Amino acid sequence: MKTTNLCFVSDLSQHLGETVCLRGWMRAMRSSGKIRFVEFRDGTSTCQCTVEASKPDAFAALEGCGQESSLTLTGTVREEARSPGGVELSIETVEVHQQAMEYPISRKEHGVDFLMQHRHLWLRSPRQGAILRIRHRVITAAREFFDQRGFTLIDTPIFQPGAAEGAGTLFELDYFGSPAYLAQTGQLYLETAAMALGKVYCFGPTFRAEKSKTRRHLTEFWMIEPEIAFVELEDLQELSEEFLLHVVASVLTHQQAELEELGRDVGALERIQAPFPRLTYSEAVELLHSPELHAKLETELAEAQDAVAQVKEELSQKEQQVSQVTKAWKVEKFNQEIQELQDQIRELDRWIAHQPAHIEDAKTFQWGKDFGGDEETILSRQFESPLIVSEYPREVKAFYMKQNPDDPRTVRNLDVLAPEGYGEIIGGSQREDDLDTLLARMREEGMDPEPYQWYLDLRRYGSVPHGGFGLGIERTVSWICGLKHIRETIPFPRLMGKMTP
Ligand code: 4AD
Ligand code: MG
Question: Most CB contacts within 10 A, which of 84, 161, 253, 322?
């Protein structure tokens, strides 16, 4: 389809006074006397287009076009202060590709279940577009970081013969009559490549049969994993810090408009700085047990109770006001505000209901247990920058992690917890490089070393200290976008009990 003067909405302001052609979709249309106002989107951005009844063909062509009708519009670009973006298109001609009728997603609020069932259409909303662009930026920045530092990209297999992150979350499938599993991580293969090339990374989909319905778990997610020869835990802490700073800076540089669309508190991202706080697991447990922390959590609870009382007051005022207005658009505006306040109250109530359990969890947490979502939320809310927690108890971590020479109860690992309560976004470790220690650990875990002989060979032929980590793309996007749930961070989320569309 060849079109002259083809232009994209995002470039419109560079074509003032020119006649251009836009291709895209109608987001909305309203009429005011002899003018039709079309809110138009083309994937790059949204703009206002107008047509007057004095252009009878174009005016009539829009008759009966519902939301998401596909159109080619030709017209003149004009300055218009009242229009979003400061420019608008005065339409001369309209070509209708398809008249859409009764688009299921209207501008009023829809429940999440409904939107998830219509995910294939929901992607067209400005909010979802903003999230997808930020996701793209996170991935681009993450790859750029390793590419600029001389890492080689290695593609690791998705069909794998065994577990790396625990048998409990494996997806098993039939591989020509033998069991095979979907990759939980590329790491074990990546270690082989690190012994060949020194600095490597992999980036691909990974799978976990997570039987948990939380706001942090997907069954299919994307992970970027660096792996490096001749590094120790401290090097990995530093690398993870530089890496996250790079990713956040890149989003702040390139995606301001998207962050604004999402209403993200950009200050929280701007305040992130090196050095990130570092705690050992044992220090983190001490923090959870500290009376100062408990007092702080109690204060937060009291503040949330005050806040909910205030929002309720505001709500009752709004409800009175809405009964007094008559204009349809005003009623709609008020109703939308009321809905937002109700959401806020629900959210705060949920938080208030949960906080006593949070406090109790912190007080009674026992050394040796893994941190769950609650502990991670508490810990990561205490710092403005991501928190690096190291040296967890051996029992709760994967078999390949290097035993701590100073304390055999712990391993030389790191988890990086994103601030504002988001929790773990990076998990990694120095790897066990001693053959006998690794074999002993595998037996302890009840693992048969036989299928792992290739992996054990790395400890037989030129073993060196090495390690790496994995960053979950969706958890990172969720945090950077300030989302409440991971499901919006990937075009088609796969969750326990959810795999359509
Ligand atoms: O901590 P994990 O399990 O670490 C590994 O897989 C290592 N093999 C990585 C390495 O050292 N090369 O997972 C790493 C990250 C987590 O921090 C989290 O961001 C993400 O992957 N992740 C998930 N994201 C969404 N849904 C899930 N079910 C996830 N499980 C892990
Ligand atoms: Mg982990």
Answer: 322
